[in-house]
Amino acid sequence: EGTAGLAPPLLNSVKTYTMDEILPLRSRYPFKFIGLLVDDKTGGHDGVYSVEELHALARALLRAATGRYGFAPSDIFFDSTVFPLSIDMPMSAGQSGYTYRTFETIRALRRDPEFRGVHLSLGISNAARDLPGRRIGVCRAYLAKAREYGLDAAIVNVFHEYGRKPAAPDLLAFVSAFAAQDGSPAAGERVIGRMLRFCEANRKVRTP
User: Fold this and answer.
1) DSSP notation for 11-67
2) Burial class (CB in 10 A: 0-12, 13-18, 19+), 95
């Protein structure tokens, strides 16, 4: 009542372990939703999912939503999660970085015919958390890089003029190093070098 002509709300968020509680509400209230790619074991998983695991979580959500609950693919916005670049440092030999897995999952879903028509979304501001400066610029570069992989939606601060101001080339290169952190020693060294130079250039000097 009183909602004629309004677009269905976008619910943030649904996970595989909450979908059977939330998605049945579709029969009473039309809505779209963000499918957050985490499971109920995340606490012991440290957030380290492989691209294949993230793809599988998305597939489970997609099949439940479209198969059992009447959602169209275009009603679904998959979020493979944004980890702060500040903590996306090489940890274990052969282990790819968080940003690499986030972006490669976007690429995998975009290429999978089963996911035709869905949206891919990220909460961009988390990328710049705890960085010493240029956070808006980093977010702008992160979004630009994610779009290269197939991102078509995002949660952003609209006052930061995304899409109007281009990403700074040096910040795009900064984010690109994290996107390429595939677990190889060379990629890890590039990430460390980029982060050291970024922090050196943007560290705030305290006056006595």
Assistant:
1) EEEE-TTTHHHHGGGGGTS--EEEEE---TTGGGTTT---HHHHHHHHHHHHHHHHH
2) middle
Per residue in 164-195, pLDDT (tens digit) is: 889 999 999 999 999 999 999 999 999 999 99
Residue 99 CA, chain-centre distance (Å), reads: 8
Q: Are 47 and 98 in contact (CB under 8 A)?
A: yes
Q: Which residues pair with 75 in a beta bridge?
A: none
How many whole angstroms separate alpha carbon 158 and alpha carbon 182?
32
d(CA 56, CA 54): 5
> How many Å apart are CA 72 and CA 171, to the nearest integer?
37
Q: pLDDT of 52-105, one tens digit each?
A: 999 999 999 999 999 999 999 999 999 999 999 999 999 888 899 999 999 999
Q: What is the mean pLDDT of the chain?
A: 92
The count of other CB atoms within 10 Å of the CB of residue 90 is 19
Give the N- to C-terminal CA distance of the chain in Å, as an integer: 62
